[in-house]
Amino acid sequence: MRILLLLLFYSLTVFSGLFTIAAFYFPDWSEYRIPLASVFVASLLLLIMLLKPNERRETPTKKRRGSLSQARIVVDGSNVMHWQNGEPSFAPLHDVVGELKRLGFMPGVIFDANAGYLLVGKYQDDDKLAKRLKLPENAVVVVAKGTPADQIILDAARNLNAIVVTNDRFRDWGEDYPEIHKRGFLIRGGYKSGKLWLDGKVKMAQKTQSRQ
Question: Between vectors from CA 22 to CA 20 and to CA 23, what angle results, nearest 5°?
Answer without folding.
Answer: 65
